[in-house]
């Protein structure tokens, strides 16, 4: 896990980035084409660099924490999460193609990004659904 930044302005930037990522992840819980997992993982990484208290809170969260801990420990994703991510990415990139101007180079860029992200996601190791993962309490210092 990365260490907390000693530079106060950097900590505040990491904290703001974490709050924005967490907000986008929470919105993604309710908006079908907005990914949740990637934003929650980004929030965890940002909080690890800015606020041990918020990082610990996120890791202990009953709905969000297990997937984060699972990723941090094993660099693997649950099969259901992988399927959902791949379907969501396909749907969102398809919608993007439908809404973008009919220009060949734009389509090539969008399809290339989708293919590379999908290949990366598909190749991630799979582990069973995270259940009952224990998380150590966060230290009392932090933002």
UniProtKB/TrEMBL annotation:
Classification via Pfam families: DUF454
InterPro entries: DUF454 (IPR007401)
Residues annotated as transmembrane: 12-31, 104-122
UniProt KW keywords: Membrane, Transmembrane, Transmembrane helix
PANTHER family xrefs: INNER MEMBRANE PROTEIN YBAN
Name listed for the protein in its UniProt record: DUF454 domain-containing protein
